Amino acid sequence: MASNNDSRVYKYVIDDVIRKVRDEFINYGAGEAVLSEIRSLWEMKMMQMQIGATSGNTEGSSSSSSAAPRLVNPVHDLNVPYEGPTDEENGMLFPPTPLQSPFHTQDDGSDVFMEFEMGNSSSEVHQQGNEYSSIPQHDAIDDEYDYLFQYPSVSAQDYTNIVVQTPAEHELRAPTPPAAVGTPRQTNNVSADDGDSNENNGGSNLDEEEEPTAQHLVLAQFVKVIRTKKTKKWKCTFKDGIMLLNNRDILFNEAMGEFDFYFCDSP
Amino acid sequence: MATFELYRRSTIGMCLTETLDEMVSNGTLSPELAIQVLVQFDKSMTEALENQVKSKVTIKGHLHTYRFCDNVWTFILKDATFKNDEIQEAVNRVKIVACDSKLLSQ
């Protein structure tokens, strides 16, 4: 659920996007009707998400109820033979037998996508019965430690794969971490008040334990990240962010974070 | 102009992605145009957050995990609180994904 001000911002974004892609649609011969359909569907989905967010679900299930509308196609039970499209290309790409691992229904919401993250990514496409053949590329960090975010559709990622072939490829896109990420590294972006900016203290214990499930999300830009050695506090400055907390959307222009981190220095 | 695809993971971004996915699947929209729409969304969302939103938030919590890779910070907080003039939210766990704001000014 978004506040009135946030709703106004969303409406601005929708209007702005539709207005600015209109020329492209005309050049491509897609027509105003297609553009109108995009707008209608987009707004309808936004309203559905907000209705789902205000349905009064608890924190544990709210993410599932909000995630449920996000599914585009019905989910197939892995325990029954898959009868997907007979497209030859799809037939060549997908395994002939479904995965044996249990498959959560959409009632489990985000858990569904964590399962797929660990499994064969093509099976996600397989189960949704769509025609995309590319292995999904996730925008943000999506390494073996991160089961948190799955997309109900691989389309955005496939679009990303196709990006380099479009006229827009000359535009610089800020890099996002690849699907397989190695050991995290410290860089000069971290500075400390008492001068331990590049101390290699091993970072967090990412390699030793899995990241827990997080149902809440903040997407933002960082301006500054500082770690103080003595107090073990991290002080971060963020800007231009969207927060999905307790099933509500909150936008911010600036955010100051103070985090405690207790790290045991190993010999 | 540099753009972040980060905001596609927001509610509005996911709704747009699903919309485009449906239309591409049923042949109404070409993938190339869908990409154009997503790229424009990245720009519009970034610009809207910078110019249309004035809210300031404070975040406090216990840092469970941090990671910095490819100019993206990821924090996982436990028992975090978010406050601004209008709201106060407490969550058990939250993930913060933050791209480098300097990249947009390049």
UniProtKB/TrEMBL annotation, chain A:
Pfam families: TFIIA
Source organism superkingdom: Eukaryota
Cross-referenced Gene3D superfamilies: 1.10.287.100, Transcription factor IIA (TFIIA), beta-barrel domain
Entry keywords, A to Z: Nucleus, Transcription
Keyword Repeat recorded: no
Cell compartment(s), UniProt: Nucleus
Positions of region (Disordered): 171-211
The keyword Transcription belongs to this UniProt entry's keyword annotation: yes
A single Gene Ontology CC term: transcription factor TFIIA complex
Major localization class: nucleus
GO terms for biological process, alphabetical: transcription initiation at RNA polymerase II promoter
Family label: Belongs to the TFIIA subunit 1 family.
Protein name: Transcription initiation factor IIA subunit 1
Species the sequence originates in: Rhynchospora pubera
From TrEMBL, chain B:
Keyword Transcription: yes
InterPro entries, sorted: TFIIA_a-hlx, TFIIA_b-brl, TFIIA_gsu, TFIIA_gsu_C, TFIIA_gsu_N
Record field: transmembrane: none
GO BP, one annotated term: transcription initiation at RNA polymerase II promoter
Domain Transcription initiation factor IIA gamma subunit N-terminal: 4-49
SUPFAM superfamilies associated with the record: Transcription factor IIA (TFIIA), alpha-helical domain, Transcription factor IIA (TFIIA), beta-barrel domain
GO MF, one example: translation initiation factor activity
Alphabetized UniProt keyword annotations: Initiation factor, Nucleus, Protein biosynthesis, Transcription, Transcription regulation
Domain Transcription initiation factor IIA gamma subunit C-terminal: 60-101
Domain of life of the native organism: Eukaryota
Compartment annotation: Nucleus
GO cellular component, one term: transcription factor TFIIA complex
Entries under Pfam families matching the protein: TFIIA_gamma_C, TFIIA_gamma_N
Protein family according to the UniProt entry: Belongs to the TFIIA subunit 2 family.
Subunit structure as annotated in this protein's UniProt entry: TFIIA is a heterodimer of the large unprocessed subunit 1 and a small subunit gamma. It was originally believed to be a heterotrimer of an alpha, a beta and a gamma subunit.
Reported function: TFIIA is a component of the transcription machinery of RNA polymerase II and plays an important role in transcriptional activation. TFIIA in a complex with TBP mediates transcriptional activity. Protein involved in the resistance to X.oryzae.
Name under which the protein is recorded: Transcription initiation factor IIA subunit 2
Biological source species: Rhynchospora breviuscula
